[in-house]
């Protein structure tokens, strides 16, 4: 028999057969209180009521981990409801991390020709990196570092440009 797994937000994953459900139990994605829906009957039951489901909960596990199912792609060979799993390769905060890297690149280019104007994309890069970090993206720390480097380089290039302008103006007036 196959079941859909319901997470606490009501998202539906599957259908999954008993071996796959037992794998998800071992990974901590299904606990005794996780709700399942029978593919055959549509009846909703708790995981503890499914015959053959090996619910040996690890010590310290008290309930369903938020987002535990959503972080995995669809299992191979399974019929999946459209939209039940994220697209392959997608990570939480993926678009924010991409925006962060683009803003950092623009900021670093701007520090070469438009000092201080590069601060705007550098600050935006940091904001996007922070949002990606809150969503759990593993590269958020690196993106924040690039954003901070963009801020520092823009400030330094602004001081360098100001010094160059001062020496040029001073050189014109003193000669």
Tell me about this structure:
It comes from Fimbriimonas ginsengisoli. This is DUF4190 domain-containing protein. Keywords: Membrane, Transmembrane, Transmembrane helix. The protein has 175 residues and is α+β, with helices and mostly antiparallel strands. It has two domains: 86 residues, Dna Ligase, domain 1; 81 residues. Helix content is 46%, strand content 9%. The protein is built from four helices and four strands; from the N terminus they run E-E-H-E-E-H-H-H. Strands 2-1-3-4 form a four-stranded antiparallel β-sheet. A hairpin with a 5-residue loop joins strand 1 and strand 2. The radius of gyration is 26 Å and the shape is rod-shaped. It starts with a strand and ends with a helix. About 17% of the residues have low confidence.
């Amino acid at each position: 028999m196959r079941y859909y797994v319901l997470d606490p937000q009501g998202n539906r994953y599957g259908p999954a057969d008993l071996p796959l459900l037992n794998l998800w139990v071992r990974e901590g994605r299904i606990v005794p209180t996780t709700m399942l829906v029978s593919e055959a009957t549509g009846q909703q039951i708790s995981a503890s009521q499914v015959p053959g489901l090996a619910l040996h909960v690890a010590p310290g596990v008290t309930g369903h981990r938020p987002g535990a199912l959503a972080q995995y792609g669809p299992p191979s060979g399974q019929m999946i409801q459209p939209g039940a799993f994220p697209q392959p390769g997608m990570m939480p905060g993926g678009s924010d991390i991409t925006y962060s890297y683009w803003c950092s690149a623009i900021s670093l280019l701007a520090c070469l020709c438009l000092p201080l104007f590069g601060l705007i994309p550098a600050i935006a890069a940091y904001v996007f990196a922070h949002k990606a970090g809150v969503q759990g993206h593993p590269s958020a720390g690196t993106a924040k570092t690039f954003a901070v480097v963009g801020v520092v380089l823009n400030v330094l290039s602004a001081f360098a440009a100001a010094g160059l302008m001062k020496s040029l103006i001073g050189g014109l007036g003193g000669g």
